[in-house]
Amino acid sequence: MKAFPLQSLLDLSNVRMDDAARKLGQLLASEQEVEKTLALLEQYREEYEARFRQAAQSGLTREEWSNYQSFLGRLHDAILQQRILVDASKQRTVDGQREWLDKRNQVKAFDTLSQRHKAIEERGEAKTEQRTQDEHAAKNFRSGEH
């Protein structure tokens, strides 16, 4: 049976698909990390706001009030920045998924061609085998008549 002429491209596309899958795994892990950090920042802001409300009920000096407000402002900014990181990470994950799907589709296309090649080769071998058997049977038949 002749080798599949595009086997090296099939092998290369498999390697590239595996690389894209690994990269996608890393992107997903990174996305989870930035989302986890965002959740922690938001939780910390809620806890700090609760402390601020309790302290405000007990009475705050102008300086304490200013310190709480300033820190809450910095927390708010940090949360906004983290949301930007989350959005960017999600976009990279979407792009990574698209790349992996493209690579997988390439593998499927080459694999389909490989299967067709194999089927054609097997049919050719079967015809050759059948021809050989027919010739052998005809030779036996002729030699039996003489």
Secondary structure elements and their pairing?
Blueprint: H1 7-58, H2 62-145
Helix pairs in contact: 1-2
What does it look like?
93% of the residues lie in helices and 0% in strands. The chain has 146 residues and is mainly alpha-helical. It has one domain: Helix Hairpins (Orthogonal Bundle), CATH 1.10.287.1700.
Q: Unreliable stretches, pLDDT < 50, 5 or more residues?
A: none
The computed structural class is: mainly alpha
Radius of gyration: 34 Å
CATH A-level architecture: Orthogonal Bundle
The topology string of helices and strands comes to: HH
Approximately how much beta-strand content do the residues carry?
under 5%
Q: How many helices? A: 2
CATH T-level topology: Helix Hairpins
Number of domains: 1
Question: What's the count of strands?
Answer: 0
- Quickly name the level 1 CATH class: Mainly Alpha
How confident is the prediction overall: mean pLDDT? Answer: 93
Largest sheet: none
Kindly state the percentage of residues in helix.
over 70%
* End-to-end separation: 38 Å
Per the principal axes of the C-alpha atoms, what is the gross shape?
rod-shaped
In a few lines, what is going on in this structure?
The protein has helices at residues 7-58, 62-145. By secondary structure, it is mainly α.
